[in-house]
Amino acid sequence: MNETRAYPERPIVGVGAVIVDERGRVVLIKRGVEPLKGHWSLPGGAVELGETLEAAIAREVLEETALHVDVGPVIEVFDRITVDDERKVRYHYVLVDYLCRLVGGELRAGGDVDDARVVDPAELTQYNLTVKAAAVIERALELAREAPRPARRT
To answer: What angle do CA 37, 63, 102 make, to 5 degrees?
Structure first.
């Protein structure tokens, strides 16, 4: 497999997580690899062969943040296509973003992530998110308010 995922033969399926904690804050990661290296974004990554979308997002979140999540509803499905100066497709992802609820773990950057933070939604503009990431987070927070987390039974 093309480990850098640059110049793929076909689109790569990826998953992303908007992780919302009990205080309504979201988890952001600073990407350590391309695409978007050095930018703040949502945890996530590529789906592996034979892996379900839900299993992929839970695995990617654990690898990148050391957090355990309940995977909830799909927020959005979209393309992220990046071309080079010669107009050749450098990256092509079909991304499925999920609303996830934090259920455990202690936040730390791992895998291909340089940093990880829990951020109040009012502070999101400080992180220079892509327009799409900001819109997905906004929609996820709406979904989280519409379908509040049920009380866990012990």
So the answer is: 105
